[in-house]
Design brief:
Blueprint: H1 11-31, H2 33-36, H3 42-72, H4 88-102, H5 108-111, H6 114-136, H7 138-146
């Protein structure tokens, strides 16, 4: 088996993609600010952004505690949100939390930041899959078959 994977998995690589993409989209968006505005009613957008961020962080923390508990025991996380989603932490970050936070910018152009982040997830998560399959073998293969949402 390859070296042990950190508790954070490939999240660092995905975050680097997020930061670079956000820097590019934010720069373009601010250069052409009025062109990319989502709405003039920023207060409603903030409410939606806050709600998405709260829901996303809550779901992510719930998944994180389940994964941390299994990780400390040297086990595969298969219960709770992991019984529904193959990668619940990435799923909630990419589909709910990050888009919610990006809404604060009030720019539809900045919202496309999520596209390279999703692509990075699809590329880098394969490292985690390989590691987990090597570490847990048939248990991981069986888990992948049983989990309800296999792909983000």
């Amino acid at each position: 088996m390859e070296k042990k994977m950190s508790l954070m998995g490939v999240a660092g690589k995905i975050v680097i993609t997020l930061v670079i993409s956000l820097a590019v989209t934010a720069s373009v968006s601010f250069l052409f600010k009025p062109m990319f505005r989502i709405t003039e009613n920023y207060h409603k957008l903030v409410i939606i952004a806050v709600l998405m961020a709260i829901v996303g962080f809550t779901l992510n923390l719930t998944a994180a505690f389940g994964m941390l508990s299994a990780y400390r025991k040297g086990q595969l996380a298969t219960g709770g949100l992991y019984s529904i989603f193959l990668n619940p932490m990435y799923t909630f970050q990419i589909l709910i939390t990050v888009p919610g936070l990006l809404l604060f910018f009030n720019s539809w152009f900045i919202m496309i930041t999520i596209i390279p982040v999703f692509i990075a997830f699809k590329v880098f998560v394969k490292e985690e899959d390989k590691y987990l399959e090597e570490k847990f073998g048939s248990q991981y293969k069986d888990y992948r078959k049983k989990v309800l949402f296999k792909y983000l």
